[in-house]
Amino acid sequence: MSDDVARRLERTRRSIREGRYRLSEHVIRSLMGGVTTVDDIEAAISGGHVIEVHRHDRRGISILIAAARPNGPLHVMCSHGNNDWLVVSFAYAPAPLVWATAGRRNPQEDRRMGDGFTACFFCGGGIKPIIVGNFDYRKDGRLYVIKRVPADLCVECGEKYIDPKIGGKMDAMIANKQFSATETVDVIEFVTEGNG
Known about the structure:
By secondary structure, the chain is of the alpha+beta class. Helix content is 23%, strand content 34%.
């Protein structure tokens, strides 16, 4: 490990120890999907090792950390943002399609799984076509659940991509009120010390 990477890792671990970090919405989806927990993420950063360094024009330099855990390996991508706060942008279980081992990419990896859409914009993982069972779609302040939506899925971080024609069709179906059913949604108001 180079001195620069070692310094970045120590800075990242210090941010975790001091609680100076934030989770992206991507990570929240991983938490909700049962892929990982906040404790897993903190333990991975504290005890894992850097397997890749990514440079991005807008996001700067991110490190990808791999760690073992009882229920399988975990990858955590993070970088420092504004005011030296750490941003944990991804936390996922590495997919065998992309990773030969938890710390090494599959050299035979074929990222051309979708129809010409080759790799995830966010993590570089492989893309495969899927049918999303329930796609949450917010429009004009309302939540709609659209079933059986064709999409492209990143097999690594779970990001979904929708063809613009599919997006237009979803908009039209909502505008034309082509509803097949109504479901009850449980709503929770998050209470903090300041508001409750």
